[in-house]
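Page 42, continued from yesterday. The earlier attempt failed because a stray header line got pasted into the input along with the sequence. Redoing it now with the clean sequence only.
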Amino acid sequence: DRDRFLAFAFCRNDLLIELDGAQVAHFIGGPTAAMLGKPPEELKGVPASDLFTPESQPLVEQLLKAADRGERIKSSSVNMIGPNGAMTPPFEMNGYKFGDLEGHYFLALRSMSQDAKDEEGRDASGLMGGNRFAETAAERVKALQDSGEDVHLTLVNLPELDELVERLDEEAGKELLERLATKLQANSVGGDTAGRMGDTGFGVVHDSSMDIEALQRQLADISVDADPEGKGLMVDAATTEIGGPDLTSDDIATGLLFTMNKFRESGDFTMDTLCGSLHTLASEASKYVNVFTEAVDNEQFGIVFQPIADARTGEVHHYEVLSRFNLAEGESPYQYITFAEETNRIHTFDIAVVKKTMAWLRRQPINASRYKLAINISGRSLAMDEYVNELHSILKENDWLQGKLMFEITESARIDDMRAANGFINGIRERGYEVCLDDFGAGAASFQYLSSMEVDVVKLDGPAVNNAMNMPKGRAFMSALTELCHKLNIHTIAEMIEDIEGLKFCRDCGVDYIQGYLIGKPNPDISTFKGLPDPALFSVK
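This time it went through. Structure tokens are written below.
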């Protein structure tokens, strides 16, 4: 029976290790000669501390302590000592301690390719990011809080990390990130509650015994060791307690995501300014959840319209539908939309906007059928079956919407699977609806989106258009871009056009349509735009 279970285990794993209660190897199976430089019989009786690299040993200790508490070891990245003492590539380690099997630890290790990291929601360093980190950390936090332990979140920022990685060759840069990640994991609760929070930021969930200043020194030492110039990196850190016993795992995960977003957006991270606000940031997340849920469930949001006009005639082609929450003065709906995207709630709002727009169209007189409205879809929603299925159901049951709606994909940078996104786009187009790709030109990936997704319209990013107007080669670049789109049978819209100079620039560069305050500000009363086009404005050549 044991051989049969081993055979099943090797279907997924490369190495199987059984440690006795003293954490000494009782059994090792797999191609150990190739991977570790020794046959299995020579590794029996070797302490676990001699199997893993010095960098991974603190992490392994944390993982085994978690196993002592009855927790599973889940998808943790570790390095072992390979042939001739070299460090092996990372392994993904899972495991458990069985009290009814002499208290032994059972570990399964799989070689961790980049594909495997991506599948597990990890980046090149082996750390989790985004939702995966928040969910894993929340589960761990809740379990510890329920047992009466204090749990803290430390945000670590290495502001010059990108510059150091750029100075290193690819292999050295990768090794630096892995060493930093291993040190953070080793200090985290259970060894798997450290995550990536932006390009230079990290988060660690830990107990009250962790020495923050020691961690900062250790990370700085790792950077000095990797830096050819010996300078190393400055390491900032800020710490706070997380939540309270009355919070659910979902509450904690939401609070973590909210805090992570604020951390990424913080332009002046310092111990003094951020540490004092973390409590507020975490609790503020509940307000966002309540406002957003109320807005969706009870349709407590409004819609306004902004015209998109022909760049040459001024005739309105369609109107973009924009959402407005009932917010306090100074609050931006963008904050709520971003929060909904980060916490996987945005698809519910996107459907609510479709329904609200449909209701508005139904109230219009028959002779107002000329209105054509563009509804925004977050790039996050495209990957959610719940959204896709409900949208198709709505469009199937309401054929009268054809010619009245088009869809504009926003936050395209969040699209991970472009093949799936293109499948969604083609499905919508087959039903007779045009699709627009927003924010085009905002990043290097834009051309990849253009080649991978069959859209009808691209909206040129406002800041990109303004930059082109002010650059010597900007006119040539913009003209080439619109010519490419025309050859692909794709129309172009330039946004944020606010003056005559912008209008002239767009005309000269071959842009088809314009949007911006020059044409009209967003307004809940669409009849405001009946006076378009302005003869004086469009007599300008």
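Notes: The first strand starts at residue 15 and ends at 19.
Reminder to self: strip header lines before submitting.
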